Amino acid sequence: MPLLPSLSPVTWLLLVAFLCLVVLYGIWPYQTFKKLGIPGPRPLPFVGTFLEYRHGVHNFDQKCFEKYGKIWGPGRKSLSSTGRLFGVDFLSPAISSGNSTDSPSAAVDRVDFLQLMIESQNSHDGSKSAETSLDKTLSDEEVLAQALIFVFAGYETTSSTLSYIAYNLATHPDVQQRLQDEVDAHLPNKASPTYNAIIQMEYLDMVVSESIRLYPTGGRLERVCKKTVELNGVTIPEGVVVLIPAFVLHRDPQYWPEPDEFRPERFSKESKEGIDPYTFLPFGAGPRNCIGMRFALLVVKVAVVVLLQNFSFRPCKDTPIPLDLDSKGFMQPKKPIVLKMVPRAQADLKK
Known about the structure:
With 351 residues, the protein is mainly α. The protein has 2 domains: 60 residues, no CATH class; 217 residues, CATH 1.10.630.10. 43% of the residues lie in helices and 7% in strands. It has 13 helices and 6 strands. Strands 1-4 form a two-stranded antiparallel sheet. The chain has a two-stranded antiparallel ribbon with strand order 2-3. A hairpin with a 2-residue loop joins strand 2 and strand 3. The longest helix has 32 residues.
């Protein structure tokens, strides 16, 4: 039996051409950054630098930052994905009632997330002017998907943020005491939190901001370049995906002296004026920043206030000090954050 199959010369030629095209397809997209003169890790055919992520996305970004500087090319020119997220039915009645002209709520001028999406569906109606008409309306499936993402995306991020804040307070008792004093001053006798009281707590805002600087819920931001531009001598072609490693940016000693230290004073009124807003990106920036930013901050602050009114956080024997982040996958503690919650009455007596 011959080692190679008996094929015609034309078939062999086509087979070799096909293999060359496959190899070219696996290598060609990685030439973009080389042509632009942008340094970066050497990608493998087809998989690029994906295998480097097994050590953790933030670790990969940190190593690239230390080796290549403030800009590097991590992989392919662009990545696009289209498809259906998911579909469920429990929001359908709300969408139907919102679209119905016979609904009693149709005459109510509401400005909320769901209503704005519903109105985008009706933007091509005859009652709408040409100026307010959108280029693309949303389908029912898109409205459902966006509404569900808006509802569920905040749960994990909020809980993670609260965990990191509790850890920072437990390991910095002086900061916790000062914050409790501020809470007691604005809400004496464990009064229920109000919006006006929350927004007046300056030190609370400083503590939350410093915690999400150290541990941002989104370690990376992505933006697609819609027009070829040149910035600081670097040309960014149209269609290129630009990744902003917020985790690395938040720990750059050029912008944050002693970046690994927990110092809420960085965000005092005096110090905040000197912070470049594009070096602090826990929620992104620009027209596509996190749509739930204000709501998320308010929820976190209310939760912190209620907890500190009743408890004090203390480290225990199982508390990981220092806090090591997992090198596999996305940013999370290598070991669970375990703290002791002491009722305020007991904590005050011991103090």
